[in-house]
Structures are given as C-alpha cells and as structure tokens.
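During the second year of the project, the team shifted from modelling isolated chains to modelling whole assemblies. The rationale, set out in the original proposal, was that interfaces cannot be judged from single-chain predictions alone. As a representative example for this report, we include one of the complexes processed in the last quarter. Its constituent sequences, exactly as entered into the pipeline, are reproduced here:
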Amino acid sequence: MSDDVSNEVGISRNEVLKIAKLGRLRLTDAEVDALGKDLNAILGYVAKMGELDTTGVPTLEHAAEFGDTCRDDENRPSLPREEALASAPRTGDGCFAVPKIIE
Amino acid sequence: MEPYQWTIHEARRRLDNKDISSVELTRSVLARVKAVDGAVKAFNLVTDDRALADAADADRAIARGETGVLTGIPIALKDNMDTAGIETTCSSRILAGYKPPFDGTVPARLKAGGAVLVGKTNLDEFAMGSSTENSATGATRNPWNLERAPGGSSGGSAAAVAADMCLGSLGSDTGGSIRQPAALCGVVGLKPTYGRVSRYGLVAFASSLDQIGPFTKDVRDSALLLEAISGADPLDSTCSTRPVDDYAAALERGVKGLTIGVPREYFIKGTDPSVEKAVQASIRVLEGQGATLREISLPHTAYAVACYYLVATAEASSNLGRYDGVRYGLREEAGDLLEMYMATREAGFGTEVKRRIMLGTYALSAGYYDAYYRKAQQVRTLILRDFTKAFDAGVDLVVTPTSPTGAFRIGEKADDPLQMYLSDIFTISANLAGLPGISVPCGFDDNGCPVGLQLIGRAWDESTLLAAARAHEAQTSFHTRRPDL
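Output from the structure prediction step:
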C-alpha cells in the first residue's frame, strides 16, 4: 500500500499509525490497511457536514439540563481495598502491579 | 398460554391473586430459555441460581403483602450494566470474566423492587453496532428468522423478550440501540429523555448520548418498567431531579387533540416499500383515533448520521481509555507499560471497537478537532433546533419508521461499516437532541419480519409518547404476535 491513500479526504498510512498510537492500539499490517480504507470511507461520508454553514452556531456538548444535581460532599464508606483489587490481573503489596515505569 | 408468555402486568395480577408463585413463574421462564436460547443465543449468561433465589425472596415478600410492580417478575439485563459479583463483559474479550464489585443503579433498583434476574444479554461489543454480530460471544439470532440479525446493539435484550425468555428486559440506546432492535424483533422499546434514568454502573460508550430503557411485550409494561427505573440518583450528576410522571396513569389518555408531525425527510427513497406501507397504515390508525397529522420538515436530518459518528466515537475513544490491563479485565504482559497497554488493547478489542477508537481519536486530534468534532457539535445544535421548532409550532409528537428495513441477514452488512451505520438513520437524531423515543410493532415486511413505528416526543414527556403508543396498540394486534420457535 502506498503512503497516500487515494481519497479526497485522505488519511495516509503514517497517519493511521500515528492515530493508533494515540489511541494505544497496536495494529497488524492488515488492520492498518483495512482501517485506513474504512476511515477514509467514513470521513468521506461525514465531510457532507461541510455543506452546512455553521458560522456563529453554538456547539452542543449534551442535551442535559444541569440543575441542582450535586449531592453533598460528605464522607461515605468506600470500596474495601481487597474488593477494589479483586478483579486486577496483577497485584502486589496491596496495590495494582504494572511493569516498571522508572528505572 | 404458558406463564413465560405473560406480560409483566398479567404476571403481576396472577402473582397477586396467588394463582402462581414467582418460583413457578421463574421456572417456566428458565425452561423456556433452555428450550430456545440454543438457537437464539440472546444470553451471555443465564443466572439460574440467582433467579430462583430472587424468586423465593419475592414469594416471601408477596406472602408478607410487600408487593411492588416488579416483585417476582423475571427480567433480563443487557450485559453492559454492572451487577455485583455477576460477570459483566460488554461482549468484549477485554472484560471476559470481570465481576463488578458493585451494582449499577438500575440493577440495584430492580433488585430492591423484587425483580428476578434471569441473566445478562448479548450486545455488540461495548454497544457499538446495529446487529449484535460484533460480539466476542457470537451473534444473536432474530427469533422471527434465525438467519437474520435481531438488530443492535441491544439485540440480546430484544430477542429475549421476543422469544419469551423473560417478561421484560433493559437495554441501552446511544444511537438507536433500544428502538432499532425492538423494531426488528417485534417488541416495544423505549429510549427515555437524556437524564431520565441513571447511568451509574452502565458501562460508558458515548456519555452525552447513552440512556437506559425498557424492552417489553406491550406498552403498559413499558410504562411500568420505565417508572421503576426513572428518577434522581446521587451517584449520577447527569440524572435529573425532576419528578417522575405516573406513566401508567397516562396510558389511556389517547391521541385526541394531539398534533403528530410527519417529517418528510424520514419518508425517503431507500426505505423498504413494505416497511413504509406498514408505517403509513399505522399513521392512519393514529389519525383515526383523533390525532391531527401535520407534514413537517426536520431539514438537518440528512446530517445526523455524520454528526453522530464523530460525536459518539470521540466520546468512546476517551471512555475506552480505561481498558488498559491494570485494574480489571484482560492483560497481555509486556516489557514496559506502553507495550502492555497496546498488547492488551490489541488482544482485547474487536474490529468495530478499534475502528471507532481510531475515528474518535482522529476527530479529537490536533489539527482536526475544529474540522470534525467542533463542526459535529455545531451540527448537533442545528438538529436539536429542528425539533424545537416543530414542537414550538404545536407538534406534540413526531412519527417515523424506526428503521428503513426489517431484519437484515446475518453477515449482510458486516463488511461495510458505513452501510451498517446507515441502518440507524431514523433513530440517531433523538439521541443527539436528547429526546425520548419509542418503537412499537406496526406490521410485517415482505420477509415476514416485524416492522417498527417510532414516535419521538418532547423532552420529559414520556407520558404523551406512551399514551400515543397505547392508542395505536389498542387498535392493532401486532404486539400479540410471537415467532414460532
């Protein structure tokens, strides 16, 4: 596959790899090709929004009405440590264990 | 009629009359699951022991006279709602074996209300899909035709109700994931107003769109189940403190005096003619009951799918960041932390989930944010304004087909994500605008598969939605039809 996917929107193979890294996804070569093709098709479709003049139109993040929905900030019992750790793939010393981060 | 075939309100009457115990009713339902779920594959997990224990508790409560609407009623939950000590997988390898340490608010309310948990139902992985094929546990089949898909993403919950494997179930709807499978399986599915039902313990897909709602065999049950799960929750700040209506009391209000908008953008080329015919006939039923029909325009409808697939994937790419192999679920060991994250997510996520994380990450990335994400949020405003304008002009409800086609074949759209996305073309706008919507059975297509009629209402006005749905149901018998299994 060439570096430049032929499409008017056009995500290149390198961009696919860059996005995958941002999204913490490791992709096989076949996935890079297939997802690149899919993304270009989808972006080609969503480009139709460009037909709309949205100058001055506010953004809508959600349709919720936020009113008096905050509860009081009080101490409540929290999840016991052993329950919080019960589903972890690896634990140690009462903590979640991960590969070494700092030498 | 076998007990497993009853509606919730019918079972309530029988349980209260002591015609049957909840244990007997639950055994009938579990036997039905055993008989037909090998073919339908609606369940990821059947919680037999828990169900019978819940039923025994319910029978004791009934004997004490402590009976609520759901006491002793067998209900199934979509497998993206956290249930304490019971596997909650989202049909994903990355959560295989995960047993949450807590109940979500909706499962907790059902439990407190005495409902019997039948099991956890299949879905498209993380609710991303429209066919329940994108599941690590395999595809669910449409009970009306086992070669066809039940719709999705709550296809397991829809199929379980359609096949009488529970009296009602709950699903979640981000872009149509309750209404579209309800239509394709011939049951009633309701997506409440955004903020009506708590999402605490609902595994997040797209937080500005997700909403939990009921699948039921008729409209009365929909009202009962909705009322049981609605209302403020201190554990979800996006859940409204508005009082909850008495939905059951609104059921017989009828449609006389209501103005029902028929949006021309929803009656388009590309809709199956047999679907359109069934929907048009049902619109006449509403007119015959005294509703005034008005042709309206929702001019930004054609942009809804594009808008949705940027907003939903952007939110999903962020929400799914939590699956990193550290605190729960799958881990693929690797030498350093970044490699561990990437190996875990490579092994744990299916193709559609990866596709959406990629699209959402792209839409939020530097240089593309304004062109895609911000633009989509502006278009979202225009879509909401279309509805607001119609409601301000006196329209009480909007009526549309739920889906442009009946059930499609398993595999038919699996290789073409864009075609799959377009099957949500009629349901997505209600999510973007935060409005309540319901799908009710309104006929059958040329393949003998069910067709759904969608009604969309004003925010917080589920009562009018249910009253109109009930008025239609009272004049038709589609909801009483069941597949041969």
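Chain A touches chain B through 55 residues (CB under 8 Å). The first helix of chain A runs from residue 13 to 22.
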